[in-house]
Amino acid sequence: MTIRLYNTLTRKLEEFKPLEPGKVGFYSCGPTVYHYTHLGNLRTFLHNDFLKRMFLANGYDVRHIMNITDVGHLTNDEDDSGEDKMEKGAARENKSVWDIAKFYKGEFLRDFNDLNMLPPTVMPHATDYIAEQIELVQKLQDLGYTYEIPGDGIYYDTSKFAAYGALTGGSLSGNRAGARVGFNDAKRNPTDFALWKFSPTETKRQMEWDSPWGIGFPGWHAECSAMSMKLLGNHFDIHTGGEDLSRVHHANEIAQSEPITGAPWVNTWLHYSFLLDKSGEKMAKSKGEFLGMDALRKRGYDPMVYRYVVAMGHYQSQLAFSWETMDAAANGYMNLVRRVADLLKSDVGTHDESAYNTWHDKMLAAMSDNLKTSSVLVFVQDIVKSGELNPATKIALFEFVDRLLGLQFIDRAKKLVALESETAPAEIVALAESRVAAKANKDWATADALRTQIDTAGWTILDGKDGYKLVKKS
Ligand code: AMP
Ligand code: ZN
Questions:
Q1: Whole domain around residue 340: which residue ranges?
Q2: Ligand 1: which of 29, 44, 278 to mutate, most ligand atoms within 8 Å of CB?
Q3: Are residues 34 and 181 in the same domain?
Q4: Which residues have CB under 6 Å of ligand 1?
Q5: Pairing between strand 153-156 and 193-198?
Q6: Each residue of 238-280: pLDDT tens digit?
Q7: pTM score of the predicted model
Q8: In what order do the strands lie in the sheet with 23-28?
Q9: Could you read off the pLDDT of 1-22 as tens digits, one per residue?
Q10: Distance between CA atoms of 301 and 453, rounded to whole angstroms?
Q11: Same domain for 185 and 43?
């Protein structure tokens, strides 16, 4: 099937052509593990997951690399100043940097797993690829792209790379990101960036390594160039990240890599739009206040509800997070789960291959057309409502939707069926019966109080035309 993706580099929706037929290699900038991963980061990772599932559904052999940043990402990464985010996290919690990395990576993996994301083929840590990063800087030095700022580090001279900033249509003079006051005034061009930072002389860093330029640590951008080339080769198909990365981080990655590999280093660049917080701004770890999976767990949401929220949007549009959106999505998702549960309980009939193929192809075409996840969800509603499709075919289609969107409809529906088959204990039934009596007496306050009591005891009471039903809560 034809695959089309929006390539930031060409600013066009393009037909995807793999470097090797039937195979796709892609690299995604992963989390900096100095704090909990927030819902914005997770939105970006969910889009990677949709991308990967789309390729798998098209029969591709997928090689996906996503790094773990555990060194070198400075609080002010646009001009290579400020503190190392990892060292800052360690100071905040009075732990070693290594412990911070281990703890937050573990938390990240838990979220990743709860959201049913497929594990990357390799998840390299920046600190395991220091030799490769030093080698990268050495090559750039040999090619004449670097200079030293004494007492600071080895810098990349962006004026030596004619195509600098081409990814976002920027130019050397137009990008004033680095034109701030501070010792980076020593940079030759505002866009120049650190390849290797020297350790401070007055304090000892927890993470530092020896190098041809002295003791220090790699600049943040170096890791992604070094690790992607090592694990995917000198040319690969796709590089992804949140929209904040295109102008500086990815521009710098290209500048570091193309002198070594030759252009084009990466064929397609995919950037995902932000998740916004309640004030309409980018959700950001550095702001200190952000929502992570824990906030959702505490409020009792199934992680699939957040996945559903993300799937209802499109990666090229920003998404405003709100609890109202979560509640609406929870209803929408649960309604679908209930419909699937009904299908599982029904007399399923025989699978209709031709009808299956028609809907399968429609959904795959939507997904392959620039990852239109929300269009897949519209088809899902059509499938549920269809009077022509029998339950067996509908169930098979939901199995496909689960592979494509990872929403675990079948799994949740099976759990619901199991819960529904549990009979409520006598004391819960007694409460339900009292509620029936209260309703008959139009004593709504008592009826509501009894519903709350039943709910708190772990049961949901569902009213229908033939009376109530008690369902155990998951
Ligand atoms: P970080 O852990 O900050 O290095 O970011 C990990 C990934 O999340 C990167 O691809 C970022 O571009 C992305 N990201 C950061 N903030 C947001 C946000 N508010 N919405 C979507 N993606 C984000
Ligand atoms: Zn990166």
A1: 293-421
A2: 44
A3: yes
A4: 29, 31-32, 40-41, 43-44, 69, 241-242, 244-245, 272, 274-275, 282-285
A5: antiparallel
A6: 999 999 999 999 999 999 999 999 878 999 999 999 999 888 8
A7: 0.90
A8: 61-66, 23-28, 236-242, 266-272
A9: 999 999 999 999 999 999 999 9
A10: 20
A11: yes
